[in-house]
Design a protein that fits this description.
The protein is of the alpha+beta class. The chain has helices at residues 7-15, 55-64, 90-104, 107-116; strands at 20-22, 30-33, 36-41, 47-51, 69-70, 80-84. 37% of the residues lie in helices and 21% in strands.
Amino acid sequence: MALMITLHDVRRIALSLPATTEKPSYGTPGFRVKDKLFARVREEGDVLVLWCADLEEKEALIRSDPAKFFTTPHYDGYALVLARFTAVDEDEARELITDSWRNRAPKRLLAAFDAEHD
């Protein structure tokens, strides 16, 4: 599997999750669950913004692989991490996008998703 995802991969993975729609965010593709943004492509076109469970998870991801995960001052204090398309393969992208979706999905939808995927 190629160690690089594309916008096509991101879109396919995100839109496969329940109650997900695509709507531009800051002029770039954004993905929402019940109208709550859970992933978006940054202006560079090859960086994905993802929601973490908390700031500790964000810091752990960045420490684990700073070539893959990073942040900018704009995201300081927010449980959002940036991931480079060039450093993520499709399996990891699926895990990251799904985790971000889980962090933003309403409880009932999440419970139904978990019941279906146990």
